[in-house]
Amino acid sequence: MSHDTKTPLGKLGERLTKSVTQIEADELQEDSARMGCTRMCDLVDRQEATVSGTVKAVTLRPRVNVPALVVDLYDGSRTINLVWLGRRTISGIEPGTYVRANGRVTWIKGTPTIFNPAYEIVPLRAH
């Protein structure tokens, strides 16, 4: 009898063989799909997209005359940079926060980036 990965026993076996990092990545991708978001690994340059994921890092990068708040957002498939020009902080956005963002994707040095995205903090990821 083969074990279907959807059965409790199949899920247990899958969990025992996958790393914690891979399990978290799979869960993030499932959450993103459930919210109707585009997987970050599928983003195309100049595409308008809605993405969601966990904030991995928040940095303030100085630009000429204008600060830029940069958030690394991870959805389990890859990371995207969300950049808010003229912002130094955004209340509630910190590492570990789950965020959904929308905007036009552009590729900067090989990394998908959205400048000044519309966003919402998702307090609890529904399962």
Automatic annotation (TrEMBL):
InterPro entries: NA-bd_OB-fold (IPR012340), NA-bd_OB_tRNA (IPR004365), NucleicA-bd_Rv2694c_prd (IPR016499). Residues 50-121 form the OB domain. GO terms for molecular function: nucleic acid binding. This is OB-fold nucleic acid binding domain-containing protein. It comes from Knoellia koreensis.
